[in-house]
Amino acid sequence: MPGFGLLVDGFDDGVVDPVLWPQSYGSPVEVGGRALIPCTTGYAAYKSGASYSLLWSRVAARVVPPAATGATTAACSLLVLTPTTGTDAGFLVDPAQNAMGLYLRVGYADPGALFPIYDPVAHAWLRLREDAGTLYWETSPDGMAWTVRRTAATPAWAAQPDLALVIEAHRDAGPDDFAEVDSLNVTRAGRLVPTDRTAAGPGPATRTASTMTGG
């Protein structure tokens, strides 16, 4: 069964891919190498087909939530959905509330949800991953160095082959805006750190004759 790690989109071609995002709604677009999801008093989202598993897999992306201007809630959510309404897991970033929700919900309820203060730098990248029976909610400033914000035992539904990803925006008031998403499951290059050389490197070679022979 395909894991969410196979759902990869850099949002660089200016087209909402109908194969990757067949259930999208609310007219999201791609502009300037990012997905733009309208944040209005309605709802808009990129939504994948229900054809993935979360087991031994992950969802990671760069997320810029909508502006909080004039709203009491202006949120962008990144959620893995099950076929059972209200049973899901992921993030909800709401700068109007100055908070980020880390959810593992059943019937839209999660008594163990955490709500760290939202930091647009430290929480610029979001990742939900499953590894050996544990779910991890992680954030990163650069998509390379990750900090674990919450863990929980992997729910049985994570192994189902019919899960979907939704990245949705909504606000209760204020001017229309966009949530922005980039680099969904796009692997980030690591940093190369120079090391001290303690021995001499190879010296230059001296050519004494042509290495080419023949006519």
TrEMBL record:
Residues covered by region (Disordered): 192-215
Compositional bias per record (Low complexity), positions renumbered to this chain: 197-215
Protein name: DUF1349 domain-containing protein
Organism, scientific name: Streptomyces enissocaesilis
